[in-house]
Here is the input.
Amino acid sequence: MRLLPQMHGMVVSFMVYSIIETELRHTRRPRAQLFLALKVLLFSGVLLLLWYQLNGVNKNAWQAFGIKQPLALSAAILLVVPNMWLAYQKWMVTLKAIEIKTDRRTKLHSFLAGLVTGLLTPNMIGNFIGRFYYFEKVHRANITAFTVLSNLGQFLASITFGAVSVVWLGELLVWQDEDRLMYVLLIVVLVSYLFFFYIDNFLRFFKRMKFGTSFKHLLKKSPWFRTKVLFLSYGRFAIFTLQFSLMLVAFGADWSLELIAAIWQVYLLTMIAPSLILGKVGVKESIALFVLSTLNVNEVAILFASLSIWLLNTVSPALLGLLICRNRSWKHQ
Here is the structure.
């Protein structure tokens, strides 16, 4: 079964964490060079993927494209603020669970640094990398574990509403084998929630590892951590949905409940689809074209809506993070 890239991502995250820790013991790269490399990689990737997506659109779609509802566009842009606020609140809940007390500046800078490193990995699973540089080494393993668990909460929100959409519409808009799909989705959702809320039981296999003991101990001391993270993730997903729908309406699509359900399926398929870097840009646009074109939405509108959401929610905060964090030295490297 193609289960849970987020569960697989937890394993990958700890592998990356180990590699980084080993690397830091042997070398200290100049901070300026690292941020320069991130900027070059980000810029090159954006240009390449934009060209690839826009190159395949036909001329008729281009001619029909335009901003039809400026107010809807403005509203979609403004939703970046509550989206980032909810993401920041998830980080605050994480720090509280790990029992880390620090100043507001460090909290904000570590959050922004996480946006930068998260951008360079699928589904933002690498956001722990930028975050843990701001704290003592003793906290890094727990920051990694709790951040990835928080990321899993966002994964749960996507597959939950995606499953609701499939049940609601009676089909996945790009796959007609409904019966088999329903069973697969049910199993994935059930296993994901069980893993999220009962990960403590899996930790008994890591009794010899100090990290496993510490992680389990902190989870017991913060029984509401996962519930808070999950509801914050639901809130962010609601904003993603509203933002995407408003962006489509701004470019000429007709708002409807069917459009909302289709957007949920876009996020469902995007979440389980494989990708490399840049927060699944390119992957999401391709999926959006397949799903939303079944509702006769303009292809250019779909591409621009999806890319605009990515630029607003992912790239802009990451660029802000680069500008702010480059003037802040990392602690205890």
About this structure: The two ends are 40 Å apart (CA to CA). Residues 140-169 form the longest helix (30 residues). Residues 5-17+71-325 form one domain.
